[in-house]
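Quick start: load a record and inspect it. Here is Syntaxin-3:
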Amino acid sequence: MKDRLEQLKATCDHDDEDVEIAVDNPAFMDEFFGQIEDIKISIDKIDENVAEVKKLYSVILSAPTSDQKTQDDLEALTNDIKKMANNARNKLKTIERNLEADEEQRVSADMRIRKSQHAVLSRKFVDVMTKYNEAQVDFREKSKGRIQRQLEITGKATTDEELEEMLEGGNAAVFTAGIVDLGISKQALNEIESRHKDIVRLEGSIKELHDMFVDIAMLVESQGDIVDNIEVNVSKAVDHVAVAKAETKKAVRYQSKARKIVPAAVVVLLYFSVRNAPTGGANLKLHCIVKRVLGLQSL
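Running the structure step on this input writes:
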């Protein structure tokens, strides 16, 4: 969807003339597009933060224990994502309520524009949050895998179900109490405790975002037809613009050739008219003009 929208925008940017769409309330639409831009900025920033979170997850997983700075950076990014996601969600919900309130009163160009913009941003928001959720789940599984490997080294093999039960307590002391008697090394115990803390922090973040994610995901699901129609229309528009530009170029070439052919034909006719005409003052003058036009040395 994004690629098609960018393609359409790039195509339109090369057009010499703007296409205007009449709307019922220009001032209101200016305010609406201001809201849309704010939401888009928030979603783009969330996407950037998710990329940074993934990098920190890799750093944490590559070391036996994570340092405090890495944990602080991760917490700051997580809080920023939560704050911006809530802000974007609230604005999308406000627009949704306004659309529902206005829908029965009018069906106009600005209403279609508002619905389309809202649908596209809602889908984009869900895509970004899905990416974030997938990164969190992947990190949790890898952290859990590290705990399992440490337990296996000590001879305490655990199934996924058993490990999940150990993790559900949420208390690091209670968690390690169940394995401290296994005779594992201090380093192994520290790593297990560190991974457990990572998982507990992660669980809290996932739970905080769960309701918001489901809320917007359900909204996008209900807008499926709208978003699909937008993608189809954008695709058609890009194709039509490409065809129109090609036809325009052909027309310009034909028109340019026509400009050259018509004067040349006229001059040739003049040439033969003068060549075959009796010699006279007027004809002699016209004779000289034709010579200069054709660039001839003699007639």
